[in-house]
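Box S2. Input/output pair 1.
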Amino acid sequence: MMTMRHYRAVVVMLLSIAAAHEIEAVEEAAAECSSPVSVEEACRGASETHAGVAYDHCVAALGADPRSKEKDAGNMHGLAVLATKMAIDHAASTESKIDDLAELSLVHHQEEEEEEASSADLRFKFNHCLEQYGGAADLLRDALDNLKAKIYGKAMEQLAAALGASESCEDAWKGDDTAIDLVPVADHDREYGRMAHIALGFTHVAA
């Protein structure tokens, strides 16, 4: 008959075995994440698991950034961090360009003495886009912090939430034929969306 002392010893042994297996699994996952990987391999993996990632664009965008040649970007985790930093750069750049365009466009409307309602509508659209990109940049920075801490699940949630900025901004201008030349989201907005998808794809592979 098993005594209380023997019972406790068995429980301790089983807990030790379970803890050892858990540590081994974590170490294996960490090793896989830190294994050397090229930009091409990373982009291929992300494009196969994430529909928003285009392989050719991914390779071109990452390859053109000098930071992709650094040692820290030599594995999946490092590339996910880099892609997120690039998405932050694009969000900040797009927000800045929208702000500049808003100021020029509103001054033009005032000089042309166009209807107050038209100017108010224009201001609303620009402000909407600025809010979207400002919020996206904040989400991306939070995602970057979680990525660095290897809290991948939370990082992916934040990256996914930041994807909607470009689409929401574009939607604000739909149906406005008179402002077609003022739409501030053509090239910069599109590139931001692509980089945000790459960051999410890389993070998903690294997790």
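Box S3. Input/output pair 2.
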Amino acid sequence: MNFGPWELIIILVIVLLIFGPKKLPELAKGLGKGLREFKKAAHDVKDELENAGDEEEENQAEKSTGKDNRNTEKKG
């Protein structure tokens, strides 16, 4: 979906006519907050998936070497 400059101008004029000039800053602020929250959530999900992948690789490495560092016991 590619919007050229004329399409954007027409959309902005329609939005201006519908909401009026006093409401536009409030709408833009809400849109900015929504986008910021969406980006943060997407970043958090990406980090979580990367961490899960790292943990899976560590588990595979432990299984292949026969070591399990989580269940080591001290003998005395």
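Caption for Box S3: The two ends are 69 Å apart (CA to CA). The first helix runs from residue 5 to 19.
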